[in-house]
Design a protein that fits this description.
Low-confidence stretches: none
Strand content: 5-15%
Largest sheet: 4 strands, mixed
Bound molecules: flavin-adenine dinucleotide
Number of helices: 13
Number of strands: 10
Helix content: 40-55%
Strand order of the largest sheet: 1-4-5-8
Order of helices and strands: HHHHHHHHEEEEEEEEHEEHHHH
Radius of gyration: 23 Å
């Protein structure tokens, strides 16, 4: 467009800006496609038999974790100067979707998920020395980190935690308990949420919480495995912390500010859990559709019956809609725009859609849906956790009611 004065130029710039920012693009870029295909190439080396065996023996999928680390996928969201690729949440969601798409379910996802945004408090609030000391080892898969946030007497009410870090010369001494800590059987490090001021002495419940990243010292932390329904290969544990010394150099940011720091990784985590649940649901849907097309009863494929087709078609729609919400939330996050409502909605919708798809897959296969060799019963057990953790459906509904619909806080 020709322009000869500053005014015309400004108008043209505004026009161009409107045109560009109003454009909607649902396609993956070449780089994003390369991530999906590259991750897929690693993930597809681990077949159903591998994941069924891990479901039975409960062994951490070390070979899978190592293969992902060697291919460089563990550090994609970490800053480039610390061994990462500095990519955003859309790329991380594409990665985690691919990881959970091929039979590994949450066992595959949870073995690598923590690396993506779990270390975010370090990235944002850690010192240069801490980042250099910790992040490259995480990117290379040399360290594995467990997250010790949840406590038995606090549950979802995080500010009610009681694990206490008492200030001593050169650091802190910690006593307390954690529960549901994933990967503590194999982790070398722990990100630990503590109180440094008791709740009753704080002006606000979110005050007085301090976060550490330190060695998981088994001489001071008792780790007791919890037997559970699914995701058997990635252990869950009760932790008993008795006099753990943590040097001051392992404290992230300022004392008492830890609650604000962990908020930085909550929205990404919710979006990624949503992506993982959707992937598991789509995996189950593919298996159910294939079975429905092949299984012949009453002289016709069962998939020719609308009673079989329609629920599967509905599950497809729900999964696609949830994926659109994941992408919207990730898009907002990557542009540093508020995304709390979308991240919570994506986690809720993804988990529901994933769960209902796995359940429908079991029902579609009939008796064989219950047999281990068809894998959909395992996927159903795997996907269940996405409805429960890291935040429950009730808490998400309360959050949306309060923050989006402006209704009174209910909890
Ligand atoms: C497999 C697995 C792995 C996990 N990994 C980790 C980990 O690595 N690190 C970690 O720190 N934590 C982890 N967790 C913990 C998880 O993030 C949840 O925080 C935890 O399971 C919830 O705590 P709770 O079971 O004590 O629930 P509770 O707080 O006891 O809640 C129980 C139920 O009551 C409902 N409820 C409670 N209060 C209200 C209210 N006011 N209104 C409506 N409903 C309410 C909840 O929504 C929930 O459905 C994991 C959990 C699981 C199952």
């Amino acid at each position: 467009m020709p322009y000869s004065c500053g005014r015309c130029r400004a108008d043209y710039d505004r026009y161009l800006h409107r045109k560009l920012t109003s454009a909607m693009d649902f396609s993956l870029s070449d780089d994003q496609r390369a991530i999906r295909d590259g991750v897929g190439a690693v993930v597809r080396k681990f077949d159903d038999a591998y994941w069924l065996a891990r479901d039975e023996d409960g062994e951490f999928p070390r070979e899978f974790h190592r293969a992902m680390a060697e291919a460089g996928w563990l550090g994609i969201t970490l800053p480039p100067q610390y061994g990462g690729a500095g990519l955003g949440l859309i790329e991380a969601a594409i990665l985690m979707h691919e990881v959970a798409s091929h039979g590994g379910g949450m066992a595959a996802a949870s073995s690598v998920h923590i690396n993506l945004f779990g270390p975010h408090p370090i990235v944002v609030f850690g010192t240069g020395e801490q980042k250099a000391r910790w992040l490259p080892r995480l990117a290379r898969g040399e360290d594995q980190v467990a997250f010790g946030f949840t406590e038995p007497d606090a549950g979802l009410n995080t500010t009610a935690i009681k694990t206490f870090a008492r200030k001593v010369d050169g650091g802190y001494v910690v006593h307390g308990q954690k529960v549901w800590t994933s990967t503590a059987q194999v982790a070398s490090k722990i990100m630990l949420l503590t109180r440094t001021t008791r709740l009753e002495d704080c002006a606000r419940p979110t005050d007085g919480i301090t976060i550490f990243y330190t060695d998981l010292d088994r001489s001071r932390i008792g780790v007791q495995r919890i037997a559970k329904m699914g995701r058997k290969a990635v252990d869950s544990n009760a932790l008993f912390i008795d006099g753990l010394f943590i040097p001051e150099a392992d404290r992230i940011g300022e004392e008492g500010q830890g609650f604000g720091y962990i908020l930085h990784s909550l929205n990404p985590e919710r979006l990624l859990i949503g992506a993982e649940a959707i992937a598991i649901g789509q995996d189950a849907l593919r298996r159910a559709t294939k079975y429905a097309a092949e299984r012949v009863v009453f002289g016709r494929p069962i998939g020719q019956n609308q009673g079989i087709q329609h629920p599967l078609a509905e599950r497809w729609m729900a999964l696609e809609a949830a994926w659109a919400m994941v992408m919207k939330g990730a898009w907002l996050y990557d542009r540093q725009q508020p995304c709390g409502a979308e991240a919570n909605a994506a986690k809720f919708l993804g988990a529901r859609a994933g769960f209902e798809s796995c359940q429908q897959a079991v029902l579609t296969l009939g008796g064989f849906g219950y047999a281990k060799e068809y894998h959909v019963e395992r996927l159903l057990r795997e996907v269940m956790i996405t409805r429960l953790a890291p935040v429950s459906e009730q808490m998400i509904l309360s959050f949306i009611a309060e923050k989006v619909l402006d209704l009174p806080k209910s909890y």
